[in-house]
Amino acid sequence: MIKFLHGSWAYLVMLLFVITIINYVLAYIKNKVFDYSKEFRLASFTLIVFSIQILLGIITWFNSHYFEGIKHGQMGLYMKNSADRLLVMEHPAMMLIAWLLTFYGFNRMKNAMTSKKKYMAIIMLYGLAFLLILMRIPWQNWLK
Q: 104 Cβ partners below 8 Å, 6+ apart?
């Protein structure tokens, strides 16, 4: 159930990243004044939804057969197989890095003094996080 929820919730996460980044890019181009009722809520909602996704992923990882294998000394076997390595190491590590970038981008946006800097913090850091997410999604499993 958690694994299904983790896979399904990912669609919402990706949609929110796209909406947030496009919204901030358009606002930056149009030199809009930062609107806390809209832009702040959108960035914070994206961070919250992504944080839930990370929590679901951590629960999924600890309940997986990979974690059981790691406890029994099979990490070396997983590292030799690229598909296993992606699921055991690369995907979780990259998603945590993406989450940290998102969290850092949100804090940079909150602390920035000008609208341009607020928009640029989200564009750059949420954009980089989204790129990392796209790079390390296990597409062969996800699109089945």
A: 125
